[in-house]
Amino acid sequence: MNAVYLSGSGNTKHIVTLLLNELGADGISAPIESGDAEKALEGEEIILAYPTMFSNIPYLVRDFINSHQETWKGKKIFLITTMGLFAGDGTGCAARLLKKYGAEITGGLQIVMPDSIGDCKALKKSKENNKEIIKKADQRVVEAVKSMKEGKYPQEGLSFAAHLAGLFGQRLWFYNKTTGYTDKVKINPDKCVGCGICAKNCPTQNIKIEDGKAVSSDKCTMCYRCVNYCPKQAITLLGKTLYEQPTYDKNSM
Ligand SMILES: Cc1cc2nc3c(=O)[nH]c(=O)nc-3n(C[C@H](O)[C@H](O)[C@H](O)COP(=O)(O)O)c2cc1C
Fold this sequence. Notes:
By secondary structure, the protein is an alpha/beta fold. The chain contains 9 helices and 9 strands. The structure holds flavin mononucleotide (FMN).
């Protein structure tokens, strides 16, 4: 089994890695922005994983699905989404699109992980709480793999009830946030030292270093990698103030 994933703060990458290890799968596991993602699509059975955004698919993932529409026909796809609180039909959104292109959806797994939005105070949790969340998430993956090995794939987020929950719980009100890339990345030039970590890590190459400062454009998929890894806390996106820089590595320590 191969895997392709988008992961801003590392949560989704962790879940995919753990699931593949537990399954004993030794296929390709590739970030969606890497050249290896194309190779991973050559497999018959593929995991597609991403963080839920406003009970929807991150635009980069939608773009990836659409731009490979010839590839999905006949493939068996298992969908994984990670979330801070509520996904609704986080997996279902991709499932419907992939089915349109002829894929067979084998199942879906929706896993609660620490929230990745560093510039929104309302969503912050304590370090102990985040560690506990990761522990529970890991247990859920182990349980899911146990039943997958018996041929019973979890079907989370794929039902009609989940569809309604995602639609009315969030998507209807925030639909415009995920219909395209955004130009809303804000980089404080007084704090930026031009180290290039943001530019190097951005999955859409939306950030460049010009005259020693990071400058963003209009192709942000809101993964928060630049915000959360900036060593000078110079970047914000949805909020104006940075409260913390959550990453899987920090939360799991
Ligand atoms: C722009 C944005 C929107 C998000 N929307 C949701 C949401 O609707 N529901 C939810 O439970 N979590 C939401 N989250 C939280 C992430 O889905 C969650 O923290 C995820 O595990 C991050 O995974 P990653 O580290 O692999 O990027 C959102 C995060 C971002 C950055």
